[in-house]
Amino acid sequence: MITDENLKELWSKFYTEHGFKKIDGYSIIPENDPTVLFTTAGMHPLVPYLLGEPHPSGNKIFDVQRCIRTNDIDSVGDDWHLTCFEMLGNWFLGKCPKEEMIKLSYEFLTSPDYLGLKKENLATTVFAGDETAPRDDETYNAWKNCGINQVFFLGKEDNWWALGGGVGPCGPDSEMFLDTGKPKCCEECSPACDCGKYVEIWNDVFMQYNVKGVGEQAQKLERPNIDTGMGLERTVAILNNAKSVYDTGCLKQVIDFINDHAKAGYKESEKATRYYRIITDHIRSSVFILGDIRGIVPSNVGQGYILRRFIRRAINCARYIGLDSSLFANIADLYVDKYGKYYDDIASKRNFIKDELLKEVDKFSKAIEEGHKEFEKVILGIEKHKQFALQKGETVENKISGKAVFRLYDTFGFPFELTKELAEERGYSVDEKEFEEKYKEHQEKSRQAAAGQFKGGLADSSKQSAYLHTATHLLLAALQNKYGKEVKQRGSNITPERLRFDFNLDHKMTKEELDEIEYFVNDAISKAIPVTCEILNLEEAKKSGAEGIFGNKYGQEVKVYTIGEISKEICGGPHAENTSNLHHFKIIKEESSSSGIRRIKAILD
Ligand code: SER
User: Fold this and answer.
1) pTM score
2) Which protein residues touch ligand 1 with a CB less than 6 Å away?
3) What is the CA radius of gyration of the chain?
């Protein structure tokens, strides 16, 4: 039985012996990269070094990196997907013959001192070439020279690696698979199909290109690199012939714990298995996020929103299998016991992690209670409607509209299944189709909001909110004027009563500094400057020096709001027409939001 501890040790021993230096993994929240919420791969925090910066530890490095990938959230519950995992990574920064890195990968996989896999059971894939880059014969030959028989050429969709939005260092890759020995599913069966014959364990990426901006052509990097990454949990499971990632290590421990405390047993039904796994995965992700130095807590924006979603989803699953959600604190203990050994922040934040989990459980339970009352009102409404209809000789179906179901979901966090269940108990059906439509609309809005397309968390489009929104732009301009352009927006939330603005700054602001900021904004207000808006394509917007999150996240056309010479920002709006609409700006609070992030609350009076 190989454990994840063993695998980490072997990784460290092997790469140290081959002249690589160990570096510490980074925070799970990317620094200076507002385009994504979480660190998604080992290479992610290393982008500057992959683009040519010299690394202080030299050009051969390795680490273990905590990662969160939320794009797989809907697949969690199957055998292999996790939203959170540890990645074993190593890098050669600079030109290195591919054969050298391939040989190292091969040796690690097959040497009896390391993973001891049989080469006959390995398969690899290599980039087949297209207009961007040629066929990777060098890598193909390297594998063949190692004695691997099953080497497949595949296209860009399988053998090209780039960060989420396609911007940044990228290149052809070569993936390594274990051939499980299952029969081929068809004549063309290859690691590209998901029949389960081949399971991926490792990926060597030849970072030879860079994409500077959305939709731009990949350009050759002056100094190419090799980036390799192995998913820890998956590899451990495979090495132990386990059927899923939940059958080994700490994940198994948590599944067993739940099994001891829930009404429904693990594997009792397909649904129960899924719910067990979602809880196990999501609470681990939550522990990793809460246990990060950045001090994220559940909220309605950014990382806090994802965290809230993880916890609430786990609560819903717990409900279905009859598990008391307050036991999430015990599950967190199991994770902290384990990961606290590797990550100091997780160890030192044990109580914080548990408290925050329980607070969210409590909050959500209250929302659910409110939701029950609301549900009763919906039923009452339909009953009344039915009576009226009866008087007119018409009939009304016992059906709850998708709109009402969605409101229960959106405002009270009622999952669709819950409403459906309650409805059925009362002899009602629900309009699933309409709910789906509303849900899709909402998802699209959240996606855009998370992507920063509608900057600023503007909750409504009232005049007062629009004015506060303009005040937010002036506030950022004032802060940048005082502390420099490095000060960036890190969160914004606007209600018709006040604005709340988060930004990076390394100290608590003094009374004098706050006065200065207030003065700057009020000065702009008194100058009665028109607020103008133009639609530009992303490139033009960038060139114009507009503030904003650049990355794949924007559409091609963006709105740019300009306030005279003071401010220019990419933003969805709406805004005041003139700064004089704002009347008078007043800061009511300045406080810490999380480590290195300050928060200002202000009003217009
Ligand atoms: N960047 C690659 C991956 O995440 C290899 O490290 O798979």
Assistant:
1) 0.70
2) 41-43, 89, 161, 203, 205, 227-229
3) 27
